[in-house]
Amino acid sequence: MDAFHLAQVNTARLRAPMEDPMIAGFAEGLALMNALADRSPGFVWRLEGENADGTFSRPVDPSRIYTLSVWESPEHLRAFAYQSEHLDYLRRRREWFHPNGQDAALALWWIPAGTIPTLDEGIERLERLRSVGPSAEAFTFRQTFPAPRITANGQDEVIAGSTAAPDGSARQRFAWR
Amino acid sequence: MTTPEGLRDLDAVNSLADPVRRRAYEVVAAGAGPIGRDDVAEALGAGRTLAAFHLDKLVAAGLLEVSYARRSGRTGPGAGRPAKLYRAVAAERAVSVPPRAYRTAAELLAEALELAGAEETLYEVARRHGSGGPPSADVTETLTARGYAPVPEPERIVLGNCPFHRLAEQFPPLICGMNLAMITGLLEGAGHDGEWTARMDAAPGRCCVTICKT
After folding, report:
1. Nearest to B200 among A88, A101, A142 (CB)
2. pLDDT in tens, B71-111
3. B173 in contact with chain A, both atoms CB, cutoff 8 A
4. Would you tell me which CATH number, out of the four given (3.30.70.100, 3.30.70.2740, 3.40.50.9100, 3.30.40.10), belongs to the domain A4-145?
5. Most exposed among A103, A109, A133, B86, judged by the fewest C-beta atoms under 10 Å?
6. What is the ipTM of this complex?
């Protein structure tokens, strides 16, 4: 098994409360899309959410919902998100959600296999992506970063792959937490 | 065009100057899957030695790639030698004189459209643009004329080529939604919309839109 899995957090602001008829198309599709994710190759875990519909929100802004999930690789997540029925669901997102503007809507990062991310961690990654741009700690499909490799002399420290920086600069070191 | 990458693209495109070789490329690129030299030779009306010569030149130019498979589905001793099969390389070649950067412009526009949430406007524009073509009796002709490489199946038409591939990979919902709207307009403008309906039907290795019998 791979040492690292890919975590993803996704966020959007609803145009109306989840119960509103305007949002019906989104609400009705959730169960189907969750079931599709659960049986997709490479799916590892997802946050079930308060309503067991896979979405989550915080009291500060109930209209902003999040999804959080873990996949074996970016290729597996990409196949689910963009090469399945889910793509048509995404295509209709403007019927249900406000535009994100300069805020990050999606953030990806690597986690040690066997661990799961928290929503707070996901929100931190979105914030990091928005403030400093793509990095190995928070990236998007437009610029992915390879999974870290565990060094021979330490389990708690990892080194990002040699292609971590698009400009070919030196390897980047970072430690978890 | 003066960059090393630009020169490689120029060499690759230059290898299509020979009309027979260009036709061989078109035959392979239009196929639904990898294709053997015998099928290419038949389509060209040429001998298989000549077809193989042109196919291997296209491989050397980086426009085609080779795979091997037993076409009969048999395996083990007695199944015969695997056939050499050809398919088009996904990488794109572009030569522009003088140099132009429309791809960069397209990426910036796509990103801005997403940030602004102007998807519905894009879909309206795409549909109108698609419907501007001439009427046509044949739906595959209509689609071929727009670069889609239609492959008819019993109940639907699959499109082997995505004309927006690079951009669609970066902005899937936006660009695939634009494409769906454009094909919908195309079917309406050419008078096929009574018989055919475009729908989003994403799958790897082909256009995310398929056209179904209405």
Report:
1. A88
2. 666 666 666 778 899 998 888 888 888 888 899 999 999 99
3. yes
4. 3.30.70.100
5. A133
6. 0.79
